[in-house]
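Sequence in, structure out. Go.
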Amino acid sequence: MFEYAGRVSDGPTILHADLDAFYASVEQLLDPALRGRPIAVGGSARGGVVLAASYEAKAHGVQGGMPGWRAAQLCPRLVFVRGHFDQYQRLADQVMDVLGDATPAVQRISIDEAFLDVSGSVHLFGPPAVIGAALRVRVRSEVGLPISIGAARTKHLAKVASQVAKPDGLVVVEPEREREFLDPLPVALMWGVGPVTQQRLADRGIHTIGDLAHEPSSSLEHLLGRAVGARLGALALNEDPRRVVTSGRARSVGAQSALGRRQATPELVRAVLGNLAERVASRMRAKGRAGRTVTVRVRFAGMRAVTRSLTLGAPIAATLTLTEVAEQLAWQAIVDGDGGPGRPGGKESVEISLLAISVSNLAVQHAIQLELPLQPEDPRRPGSATGAARWALDQSMDAARARFGKDAVGYLPATLRRGGGVPDDFRELAEKDL
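Output:
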């Protein structure tokens, strides 16, 4: 399927392929009348949340996560569409099949992007530039979607190159041009640099990757913390030993919910964490997995985040148990992060902007071994009477959802939370990590 009649070169062999404005591009593919027009997936001019925006809308400042009314102000000609969630996974899988024709070494890292190692394919299809160009043509002609590809010697540089290539382009960084390519680029293009980190670097006079590469490692670690500072310093120097991994199970399962700026009331925390726990636990049960370590992350309105973890004596996959553990950890984080206010029953609650749950230390759990009643009842032990009853109830609800739809049954706080701004269908596309 890839034809090359020239000399095979020793070029960069790691590719990063990233579909352009994926959700919006799918909507424009399904409805040709939307092509070339600014569109937003999700939300409306009266409210709701924009889930994704086309490049025509992005040119006006419209971005995913923005309130619909704000997007309409920025772009009066913006067209809001509901989203075809059943089509996103199908089309993305077709793209991955095309990528797999170039090499078996494909590492999918989200629904719409993947790394490829083509070192074993260049003798068949030509140098990476030829392979990348052929992939782009095939994805466009066979699936109908635009895709940008970066090719480089390391995963980090390949991902940066694909961002520079957007929209609908190909950038190949030869080893001798790496510093020339990287140095003038803004630090925001680096993997893991968000708005808060970018501002901290800017306050230090660090605006480009070249600036970052020349900063002493000790200074970066003092500014950003030891782990983050060391990692970003190494990436700025293009020191990235990670290879493309094609198999292996996820080491954790997680979900998060952005809240805007909300008061951390017991009702809100319970509802949001119940919804997150249901999404995480149901995915673990579907794969016969459970986890021992529960981690909760709370982000405050000022963008500061606090994380708390707890490792249990036995792996859990029951929704109610995960919800209760997550609640305990969330309030620890809120109290510690705020210095006191915000605990349940308090007169005043702090403002939070995000809650997240992840479960790690995963183990196989296809069934529950019941315990003898020789120790005090503890629902956190899956084999206790309460723990086993919760797991059995979840199994019954999973079966009902599989037959009648996911909204057929559920726990009340999580069910009520589904009425929020971002549909669970959209979230789940990015959370398939098992």
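Check: The radius of gyration is 24 Å. The domain at 89-180 is CATH 3.30.70.270 (Alpha-Beta Plaits).
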